[in-house]
Amino acid sequence: MTQRVFLALLLGLLWFALPMAARAQTCTVNTSSAVSFGNYDPTRVPPTDITGNVQVRCFIENVTVTVSLAPGGSNNFANRRMDGSSGDTLNYNLYKDAARSIVFGSGIGQTQTMTCTTGSNNSGCTGTWFIISTANFPIYGRIPAGQYVGIGTYQDDVPITVTF
After folding, report:
1. pLDDT in tens, 28-68
2. 17 within domain boundaries
3. Which contiguous run of DSSP H or E holds residue 106?
4. What is the torsion angle, in degrees rounded to the nearest 10, for the CA atoms of residue 38, residue 158, residue 53 and residue 101?
5. Which among 61, 84, 63, 62 has a CA at the least distance from the CA of 73?
6. What is the rounded average pLDDT for all residues in the chain?
7. How many domains in the chain?
8. Structural contact between residues 156 and 81, judged by C-beta atoms closer than 8 angstroms
9. Which domain holds residue 153?
10. Does residue 8 belong to any structural domain of this protein?
11. Phi and psi dihedrals of 12, rounded to 5?
């Protein structure tokens, strides 16, 4: 019994002695609150703005994480669009800043990715560290006002790539 406890303690100490790169990084991604515009009113001025979030949770602190977004169904970062059940399209875009001036994308053209460190508040991200280390990546969405489209459901699929 004493040998097992000693062996377990020894293995635990060796685990913490390993450099961070030698440890397996176990992270999960939560996109449940990524982006949802809700109901759109074309007569509403100013534009319809929302804020979403992608959360990365790791079991190790200080993991560098990069999030990038694809252009979506329009295949165009500058003019993302949602296709509607009515056959109409609704223009929108996703941004990495609250001013909605930097398009959140893959780094191609005028778009930028976002890199953060879990457990830290940096680069526009927020993070916490308590047993599990998190990084929260904000996504700011905007639908320009004055788009008169048919009633229906509008959606676009934007793949999110998370690298750590």
Report:
1. 999 888 789 999 999 989 999 999 999 999 988 889 999 99
2. no
3. none
4. -90
5. 84
6. 85
7. 1
8. yes
9. 26-163
10. no
11. -65, -40
Rg (CA), the chain: 21
In a domain, 16, yes or no: no
User: Which one is predicted more confidently, 144 or 10?
Assistant: 144
Q: What is the pLDDT of residues 3-31, one digit of tens each?
A: 443 333 333 433 343 444 445 578 999 98
Residue found by looking up tokens 């949602």 in the block: 82
151, pLDDT greater than 50: yes
CATH code of the domain covering residue 124: 2.60.40.1090
Say which residue, 22 or 157, is predicted with more confidence.
Answer: 157
- Angle at alpha carbon of residue 52, lines to 130 and 131, rounded to 5°: 10
Q: Give every CB contact of residue 133 below 8 A, 6+ residues apart in sequence.
A: 57, 58, 59, 60, 61, 62, 63, 118, 119, 127
Q: Is 75 left (phi over 0), alpha (psi -120 to 50) or beta?
A: left
Q: Is residue 7 part of a domain?
A: no
Please name the residue ranges forming H helices in the chain: 2-17
pLDDT of 24: 55
